[in-house]
Amino acid sequence: MALPKLLLLLFVGGALSLTFFSGSAEAGEVGVCYGMMGDNLPQPPAVVQLLKQHGITMVRLYDADAGGLRALANTGIKVGVSLPNDNIPDAASSMSYAVRWVQSNVQAYPGTWIDSVAVGNEVFHQAPWLTHQLLPAMKNIQAALAGAGLGDAVKVVTPIALDALKVPSFPPSVGEFRDDIAWSVMRPMVDFLEQTGSYLTFNIYPYFAYKYDSHVDPDFAFFRPNNGQHDPGTGLTYFNLFDAMVDAVFHAVEKLGNSGEHTHGNGRTRRRVASLMRVPESGAPGGKGKTGVASNSKLDGSASTENAQAYNSNLIRKVLSGAGTPYNPDADISVYIFSLFNENLKPGDDDERNFGLFYPNGTQVYDVNFTRPGPGPGPGGPSWCVANAAVGDRRLQDALDYACGNGADCSGIQAGGWCFEPNTRVAHASYAFNDYYQRNGRSVQSCDFGGCGSVVYQQPSEFTSPSAS
Ligand SMILES: *[C@@H]1O[C@H](CO)[C@@H](O)[C@H](O)[C@H]1NC(C)=O
Ligand SMILES: *[C@@H]1O[C@H](CO)[C@@H](O)[C@H](O)[C@H]1NC(C)=O
User: Fold this and answer.
1) Which residue numbers are catalytic?
2) Helix pair angle (95-102, 131-147), 10° resolution
3) Within a domain: 407
4) How far apart are CA 324 and CA 332, in angstroms?
5) Which residues contact ligand 2 via a Cβ below 6 A?
6) Ligand 2 atom closest to residue 379's alpha carbon, by position in its atom list
7) pLDDT tens digits, 111-131
8) Does one domain contain both 349 and 396?
9) Does 432 map to a domain?
10) Are residues 316 and 192 in the same domain?
């Protein structure tokens, strides 16, 4: 809806857009994976309350659970739904199946902010026999979304396990896709993602690299201080395995060559999509589970609350800061933490059932914050972003369009919306700026808007929005 305006701003806006994008990259966003493989999990409405309580703004479902999608309606929470691997053959071979799937799993929930459809899950790893049906299924779902007028609003992705690379961990510069998928699947898939304005989606698990490889330094794996590791291919030093894994993917994509649009980063020519990474799963287990005995001996030292807290806290902090990676400093990285709950019915080792941030009763397994402490009085104190009327209507309107086109929920300030009054440009801009600012971890840059916004530490009287508090 606001996209054409945004593009105008980017390509015609000249000086104004430069002031928005100078300096640091936009902050990434943090979500959670809402797995439901437990017989003791709370009902979806209670889960949504929990998400809101903790300021969680994105969630991923492994299917398109009706109860979950209904409970997430009108919450401002972005939702990723999934078409399970079992449905890929139908989606690949039948356009009418794809249309029906989109009707009943996306269009049926107009109040729910579904922003992506994951077609399959780790297909190369979990269902390799579907490898060559994956991209046709993604294309059919995309076409069905486009037919429903949702081709831009809902991105089609597919979560990929890191064993799609020949050498999944280190050094990143040797990152390269396996021969069986590189040219037949990954190259055309990257073209597709680029053409549709989607992003790369790779599951990134330093924990498993550590679990299965005795050479991996636990401090490097769990985001703790360490001396760093040198990539001889680029001369870059890495201080955590997450960055190294993400860069291995960026290197692998780069080796597929260029086609379509390019951007320039660090003197290299890159596809635009090669800087957009939305990690569908990352995390670490916070405990060994009911029995306390792991089937893999190394688990005894690695599956711990301390490791999980260090990993997830520092990962969230990194993503919210907007920092890229050593090889791709401008990369735009968002992450879904696996997982929302400990899921007692998950198969596999005990650690599999203990990746949760929360116990089923809603208590946090360990302390983790999903929003960056703001610059308010005292750490984490409340703050708001307001529009500066002095810049004039023209600049305010451009900045307002930018905020609404980049994640701010502007439904309240549409005619008839619950925050439409007072109907002034400056009031509407304040509403949109503040929503954008709260969603971006209250970073100072996210209230800049080319000089149109200012951070304040007292609640402005016109704000009654729940996201303002
Ligand atoms: C929630 O469950 C956990 C794990 O069983 C337990 O340690 C904790 O005390 C429970 N919290 C509440 C409020 O019941
Ligand atoms: C989370 O935020 C609270 C309040 O700002 C703070 O007390 C706590 O230490 C933070 N936890 C972590 C893990 O940073």
Assistant:
1) 122, 281
2) 60
3) yes
4) 6
5) 313, 367-369, 373, 379-380
6) 5
7) 999 999 999 999 999 999 999
8) no
9) yes
10) yes
